[in-house]
Amino acid sequence: MNGRKERPDVIGWGITRNCNLSCPHCYSASTRRLKDELTTRECLKLVDSMIDLGVQTIGWTGGEPLLRYDLEEIVFYAKSKGNIRSGVTTNGIPLTERRALSLRQAGVSFIQISLDGSTPERNAQMRNATKEDFHRIIGALRTCQKLGFKMSLAMMLGVENLDDGPEFIRLARREGVPYVRFCGFVPLGRGRKTEIVRRLCFTQETLPRLKSFFEKALSNSNPIVMPDPGFGPLPTDYCFHPCVSGVKTFYLSSVGDVYPCTSLLDKKFLVGNVRERTLQDLWNDPGMTSLSSFPKEKITGYCSECRYLESCRGGCRGITFAHTNDLHASFPLCLSRLESRRPFPAYPAT
What we know:
By secondary structure, the protein is α/β, with parallel strands linked by helices. Helices cover 31% and strands 14% of the residues. It is built from 12 helices and 10 strands. Strands 7-6-5-4-3-2-1-8-9-10 form a 10-stranded mixed beta sheet. α3 (97-106) links the parallel β3 (85-90) and β4. 46% of the residues are buried.
């Protein structure tokens, strides 16, 4: 195959915008299925292209991916034809025992359940879910463990529910879940609304609480705590993982739009659409690696003077852009800034 040497090991595929919840912070603003979503036939053809590209794992997201009733057919095709592994991120509500068994038989090996509170009341507050939904989710979690899935719980952690973080870890421990992923609030989709930003986004006054939480949470081994890029570099060494957007990963939307990764879903970073160009052509497009190769020397503000810049490289540029509309800006919620007690810039108006 012609093109560059890098291969996309793990990709995210938002298979549908249809969702049975309406979380106020949803980065994709998912509600209903879009009229022009990829058909089953188109999806299977894309899997063939992914096999040619060398994709090893697909992370199925949405919307709610379980509302695509051809999901198992596509998963099975990817597994049987290309030995592509599959993991599913779900809110857990449609995950009945029958559906879980169907996913297992199709070839899904990993399931992440999104739950934004340790109790029915806290989850309802964050996700517009019902108390009954909470108990369905816990039941789904136990079913998946019984069927042998690898499991994690994911929680969107903002100012409003930070106090529930320790109890969420204890919930995972009680249920025997080995991994907890804390997702940082990113102002995309419905999360762009000013009232949601005020509810969830950390400020200079509230960041010390977040730092204190992570200093304790990251010492856990049962469960292991995995923060996502929305929080930026974290204590104590303020390192950040190498950017693999468009190098080891990409994101495919339900209508065929391709972005370098799930942190770069603004139209500014759209590489193209699979209905107009081949997946191989899109993978070789220079737009795929424009952010992963972003030089840290072009970052302005306090990051440019920070002693951690070499190791953290200013955090995720996509997350920074979502908060500031400026690719060159310093990471707006950096916890290392607390050491110097220097003032933070004002949060941009939305």
